[in-house]
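debug: dumping io for the single-chain case to check the tokenizer round-trip. Nothing else runs in this session.
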Amino acid sequence: MRNNILGGLVIFMVVLTCLLMLDDISNTQKQPSVEDTAQVEQIENKADLAIVETED
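debug: decoded output
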């Protein structure tokens, strides 16, 4: 009985994964890609301090 439940769960996960992949492939809408960038500056005598600035 356990083998049937485990096998069914594996098949379910494989089918779910395939359906999600097909949905991603068939979705042809171009989504804008956003690049996150960070700049790190080193200040004199402060080697352990990093300032991160992000643009939203």
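debug: round-trip ok. DSSP finds one helix and no strands in the chain.
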